[in-house]
Amino acid sequence: MNIEALKNDPRMPKHIAFIVDGNGRWAKKRHLIRSLGHKAGFDNLKTQIEFVRDLGIKNLSMYCFSCENWKRPKDEVDFLMDLFNQMLDEFKAEYLDKDIRVIISGDMEDERIPAKVREKAKEIMQLTKNKAGFVLNACINYGGRQEILKATNELINEGAKNVDEKLFTKHLYTADMLPLDFVIRTSGENRTSNFLMWQSAYSEWYFPKKLWPSFTKGDLVKALKIYMNRDRRFGGVKS
Ligand code: IPE
Ligand code: IPE
Ligand code: MG
To answer: Which of 15, 82, 93, 180 is the most buried (most CB within 10 A)?
Structure first.
């Protein structure tokens, strides 16, 4: 794997996203409870975040918990909330002395989320808000429709008139991020499940079959090569 050549390729995306799907099926295949799939998925997420940074990709978004995931059994939701608590502790311990900004996209006022998770989410965003070298966007209690409604209601409350794309984009969680180039959804599901609807309007999508805990660095390299060979036209004609 020639990482240097990949890093220096001008076709490399600047903002990629993971829909980390298949943790439950990964566990089931191994006769484990679903939560152990989430643990394995979380460990893989850490590996992938580091690799994405090593590759020089500037922005990474990841779908950790959707607004719809509250429908899951309470023990699974509780386990996921514990993982997010741990993830936020790790971000704080590892990132504060680095040029890394952490954004948590999603409704952090929702009282179904444990108070400590909501507080830690707000704290890490505040502590890293002036950093820009690498932006890590963790989508927790996130929905694309809800985000669009949030932006709309903020604009109404501001008394905005004649809203254009530029102004609307400023009210999204991703306001300070680069355009979303590439979305990878593991596990073979071919749907967006309410993820970054506005931002992904012109993103490239890729749906590998691998379950998230089994998705390796090599799989990411393969995905990036596929992305780099796509012809992005944005409605125009081939250059
Ligand atoms: C994705 O894995 C992780 C979250 C939704 C938090 P799933 O839990 O959806 O795994 P499958 O789709 O059931 O295999
Ligand atoms: C999407 O996966 C949400 C996350 C990965 C966090 P789901 O597993 O919840 O999506 P559906 O239910 O298959 O659409
Ligand atoms: Mg799933």
So the answer is: 180
Alpha carbon dihedral 167, 172, 176, 179, in 10-degree steps, equals -90
Q: For the residues 80-84, what does the mean pLDDT come to?
A: 98
CA dihedral 16, 39, 66, 24 (to 10 degrees): 100
Position in ligand 1 atom list of the atom nearest CA 20: 1
**Structural domains in the chain, sorted by start:** 13-228 (3.40.1180.10)
Q: What percent of the chain has a predicted confidence (pLDDT) above 90?
A: 98
Please determine, for residue 88, whether its predicted confidence score (pLDDT) is greater than 70.
Answer: yes
- The protein residue with its alpha carbon nearest to ligand 1, atom 13, reads 24
The answer, yes or no, to whether residue 49 has pLDDT greater than 70, is: yes
pTM of the predicted model as reported, rounded to 2 decimal places:
0.98
How many angstroms separate the alpha carbon of residue 127 from the centre of ligand 2? 30
